[in-house]
Amino acid sequence: MNIKQQLENDVREAMRAKDELRKRALRSALSSIRLAEIEKGSALDDAALMAVMQKEIKSRHETIVDAERAGRADLAAEAQAEIGVLEGYLPKPFSTEELENLARLAIQEAGATSPTEMGQVMKILMPQLQGRATGNEASQVVRRLLGA
Question: The whole model's pTM is what?
Fold first, then answer.
């Protein structure tokens, strides 16, 4: 069962349990997935589904920042709870050591020796992350390993 099917089933369960927070978070994610499918013109693969889920979580993080800036702790807490719900559908994130090992392998494969070759390394590394680390986290590790 892929993520989309799991989300659909869990929305039904949340509706039966009258869990409004979970229902709202899952419906929002499903809506974003459907929109991405319409834009693409076909069903999304697992990597694309992960990207949509990451985007949803990032959106909630931005909501938290804005809510805190506006003094709305209630909205920030709600967004944080929705993040908790959505993160349950993502694979376990890479540990720092795992991410560094992948980055070292990508650096070796690209033959990179300086920060100017970071793009080549990221091109190799990004497909391996598949929702388990963000591009920002990966670029920080690669930059540090290349001595930038």
Answer: 0.73
